[in-house]
Input
Amino acid sequence: MSKTSIEPSAAGPASVRRVLSGPAMGARWSAIVYAPQAFDTADLAQALADAVEEVESQMSSWRPDSDLERLNRAPIGEWCAIPPRLLMVLERALTIGRLSEGAFDVGVGDLVRAYGFGGGRRTPDAARIAETAGRASFVPPKTLELDPVGGRARRLAPLTVDLAGIAKGYGVDRLAEVAIGFGLAAFLVGIDGELRARGTKPDGRPWAIAQERPDRAIRDVLGVIDLTDAAVATSGTYRHVVEIDGEPRSHTMDPATGRPLRGDLVQVSVVAPDCTSADAWATALLVMGRDRGLAFARRLGLSAILVGADGATQSTL
Output
């Protein structure tokens, strides 16, 4: 169920701050919008909730009946019809996978599930971990082929596609599209820690986004990122973990090793025009590690903040 609250804006009676929220992807979606006093948020709240539900119904690895899971169950080599939005996200994922030289990899679903993340059981499965050890990383188009004209896709190898590193960002972009469709010029929408802003607050200030300090033991702020007509996404190794042999293991998989990531970075935040790109590139740079990730960000003109396991922070903002 979505929630709504209304607060008077510092800009005066012509603009009112509305706060909406609802469940999404194991977390919550949220929207802060500035609109006239007479603006009815009921239709907006429903449209935002519907947009998130559509993304989940197509791209969730937790829902057996999602379109993504239909693709994952389809026989190897058999074409599977998929919706345009899922096809678009898969195309973007493959593009960023290629540009990142494999650091961003949506074909690691079997690894994700073996270690107790993603759809299925929530604890590590020793047998599945052993089964996936040493498996070659995802190499599109050899393992996944898309047919944009025909609206279909097919797996060419026994892999499980997992969109956890990009679908949430796309969900945020869908929230932004809905808000824009309602004629809103100033808003901040998000799912969990992935956010996208349009315009500024009524007083002209940008949207101030707190960057979390990467520490599992406490909730604290590392810094503040100002957003105007941009999105930010953060990937880290410190929150979603499982313990194996007494050691915490990250939910982020390293395609090069076929194991949970154990690199020299603990957090990467990326600012981009859209949240889909920010989400995927945050994961890619995290997997790359400090030196390679920083070099990649500079070469591609990505705006990123990289936080090392030693606490050192480097930025290309």
The chain has eight helices and 18 strands.
